[in-house]
Amino acid sequence: MSDLGAGLRYLGRGQRWAFGHGRWYGFGLLPALVAFVLYAAALTALAYGADDIAAWATPFADDWSDFWRDALRVTFAALLWAAGLALAVLTFTAVTLLVGDPFYEKLSEEVEKSEGGCPPGSDAPWWRQLWRSLLDSLYVLGRALLFTVPLFVLGFVPVLGQTVVPVLGFCVSGYFLAAELTSVAMQRREIPVRERLALLRERRSLALGFGVPLVLCFLVPFVAVLLMPGAVAGAALLVRDVADGHRDAPAAVPPPAQQASPAHLSPPNLPGPPRR
Fold this sequence. Notes:
The structure is a single chain. This protein has 276 residues and is mainly α. It is built from nine helices and no strands. It has helices spanning 2-20, 22-57, 66-99, 101-114, 126-154, 164-188, 193-202, 204-218, 223-247. It is elongated, with a radius of gyration of 25 Å.
């Protein structure tokens, strides 16, 4: 429970930092605003076309009674739009970070400098770093889909699909949203994407405490844009705890059987028998 609260505190500290540095806050709004317009257009188009997609995907229901056919297709259309919204929440951060990679890299760097010290980062060209960020985001998205696709199917199960599944969906979205946001500061530390996810797995409650409230806020139109600079700032602070604390941990002491014997306990080098 302490890690859940710590994650929420990092989110709050990041928002306070962003709102307290107006220039950097405006700097971080631009990429989020561009991504928001694109996603709003896509979700609006999906809402208008969801009924036609539901009819196309359920031809077997054409001969059903009007009540059951309409009930199935309305449920399908609602779940389809909900899945699109969940996918938008999962990918909004990745797309925004790609669009505004130089913006958020600089913002994250300033946050760490204000906390006392910042890793130097990579000397690779910007296009190579952007390509690496794209590959890392696709990897994280692929891992997220391993959970969201089965949850989408389970959404059709009565009662379970309206109670447990949405809660699990928010947790999955929050965890991988935290993974995306922390990628800026972790990439600066040259931490591979698999190791990033492993670090967050070790502090799963911390990632959920940071990501789940953000997912809930992102469901409100335009709030994602307003909170994005602070989310990047909070993620930078979280990484200083997760990654730096992990790497500074003392090495484990080897078990007694593997330790070298002290010199005074070693048997003396006795001379062998004389040669004949």
